[in-house]
């Protein structure tokens, strides 16, 4: 499997992107990291995410859409700038995974 994964934790330092290859052989998973990138949040994103717990449901919905668009843009730029990521047609052995910040855990 070729996987692009995203992770943003409650520290609000930024977004981690990784591209790796996962292989299942004899019931055991192995991985190879092919490329990765860390993107620091700017002050506007840090503020928006930190204060998301205090906004209305409607504002949170808009933030969710804006953040999702921003994530998509970061992934597109990562792919465009990576020597490891190969353009491939969609298939069953490609995955995309994002583990996001839980708003109620940000202090």
How would you characterize the overall build of this protein?
The chain has 107 residues and is α+β, with helices and mostly antiparallel strands. The protein contains 2 helices and 4 strands. The protein has helices at residues 43-50, 57-81; strands at 2-7, 14-25, 28-40, 94-99. The chain has a 4-stranded mixed β-sheet with strand order 3-2-1-4, with no helix packed on it. Strand 2 (14-25) and strand 3 form a beta hairpin. The termini are far apart. The mean pLDDT is 85.
| Share in helix | 25-40%
Number of strands: 4
Task: Give the low-confidence spans.
Answer: none
Strand content: 25-35%
Radius of gyration: 16 Å
| Biggest pleated sheet | 4 strands, mixed
Total helical elements: 2
Q: What's the overall average pLDDT, rounded?
A: 85
Strand order of the biggest β-sheet = 3-2-1-4
Shape: elongated
Distance between the termini: 36 Å
Structural class: alpha+beta
Order of helices and strands: EEEHHE
How would the blueprint of this fold be written?
Elements: E1 2-7, E2 14-25, E3 28-40, H1 43-50, H2 57-81, E4 94-99
Parallel strand pairs: 1-4
Antiparallel strand pairs: 1-2, 2-3
